[in-house]
Design a protein that fits this description.
The protein is of the alpha+beta class and 152 residues long. It has a single domain, classed as START domain (Alpha-D-Glucose-1,6-Bisphosphate, Chain A, domain 4). It has an eight-stranded antiparallel sheet with strand order 1-2-8-7-6-5-4-3. Helix 1 crosses helix 2. The radius of gyration is 14 Å and the shape is globular. The two termini are 17 Å apart. 24% of the residues are buried.
Length: 152
């Protein structure tokens, strides 16, 4: 699995998987250190303009994303689970023009693999099919971008 794979799990959740050559520690840091995270996070012309990653249960996880036209969208939530180098879970809310996603949950598992790391992202609570498709495409694009960042 050298490219991202996405499947629907249940009526409102996505499961996206990808393997990386990089060690788990490196992939973990790409997701939890703001100075690394902002270098790769985005998709389809979207850029991360800033991030707050307060890495603890109850801590803030937010980012400002800029679309190709320069409009900003805020993605925000808080950590519900934080197990170093193994798992993070956080609420996911989107506030921006034409985008209103509230109360969804993202869980990311960082799994050691003989050839590096497998990342599994489950995004639950995406009840609108169009929003679910948009997030599917976004997560898959993000995993390709993080692969470029961690695997070189």
């Amino acid at each position: 699995m050298t490219s991202a794979e996405c499947t629907l799990v249940g009526p409102d959740a996505l499961l996206v998987k990808r393997r990386f050559k990089a060690r788990r520690e490196i992939v973990w840091k790409a997701w939890t250190e703001p100075e690394r995270f902002t270098k790769w996070f985005g998709s389809h012309g979207w850029k991360c303009a800033g991030a707050v990653l307060d890495n603890r249960v109850g801590g803030e996880r937010s980012m400002s994303l800029r679309d190709p036209d320069g409009q900003e969208v805020r993605v925000f939530g808080e950590y519900t689970e934080f197990t170093p180098e193994a798992r993070i879970a956080f609420t996911w809310n989107v506030d921006g023009p034409g985008r209103d996603v509230k109360g969804t949950l993202v869980t990311i598992d960082f799994i050691e693999h003989p050839e590096g790391t497998e990342l599994q992202i489950q995004h639950a609570g995406l009840t609108d099919p169009a929003i679910r498709q948009e997030h599917s495409e976004g997560w898959m694009a993000n995993l390709e971008l993080v692969a470029e960042f961690v695997d070189g």
